[in-house]
Amino acid sequence: MSKFAVVTGSSGGIGSAIVDAFLSDKYHVVGIDSRCSRRNSALYVEIKADLYEFAKNENYREKILNQIKNILPEKLEDFVLINNAAVQILNPVSESHWKHWDNTLNVNTVAPFFLAQGFISQLIEVQGHIVNISSIHSKLTKPNFSCYAASKAALDSLTRSLALELSPKGISVNAVSPAAIDTMMLQDGFRKAPDKLKELERYHPSGSIGTPKQLAALVKSITEQKGAFLTGSIIEFTGGISGQLSDPDILI
């Protein structure tokens, strides 16, 4: 019997940290990404896949699901699905096109649904866990984030809906909603203005931004909960910024 975790977006900063968290607990991990990570571990298998195509193409979807299922043993001790992969296309309303919406919604929202659907029998067998990686943008966003924010709000709603149907079967379904996480993608966005990255840290009441390792530890802890009572929750990981207004201070 073996413990298995399936992690999408496994080559990115957050995905890699989540993979590490499960590998350190002797899970067999299947990483799904469009890029190869070249990770060297006997417990790790990487499957190169296009989640846009996975969401749109039924034949392709069955091919990828079967690739994963062929790796699984006949008897499972635990099974966890982490829907972490996402695309973030930033454009003003005037420059947003259908292809941006099509790509964003299919990768960020539709693919997680079909992955959950595809592994229902494994999840029921061990009363496993689904954790969707959402975003603070599902509630609090900024200009140019329309596609991304809408897809993450839809992912929150999907989390609650899946919990209603799957929790009676013993499956726990939750989402984690992080604010700024210190990934290479975030750092690249501030490369021309590193002072702004420091300013971003100060915006958070914690005085810092989160790290992939901290986020991964939270995700792992959710999957260690026994029973399905923790389900249908959107768990904030925001350094307190989700409770802070940004309008001018009132002098008292």
State the low-pLDDT regions, or none.
none
- Return the CATH architecture: 3-Layer(aba) Sandwich
Major β-sheet strand ordering? 3-2-1-4-5-6-7
Give the helix tally: 9
Largest sheet: 7 strands, parallel
CATH superfamily: NAD(P)-binding Rossmann-like Domain
Q: How much of the residues is beta strand, in percent?
A: 15-25%
Write down the CATH class.
Alpha Beta
Tell me the overall shape. globular
Share of helical residues? 40-55%
Mean pLDDT: 94
The CATH topology is given as Rossmann fold
Summary of the model, kept short:
The protein has 9 helices and 7 strands, in the order βαββααβααβαβαααβ. By secondary structure, the protein is α/β, with parallel strands linked by helices.
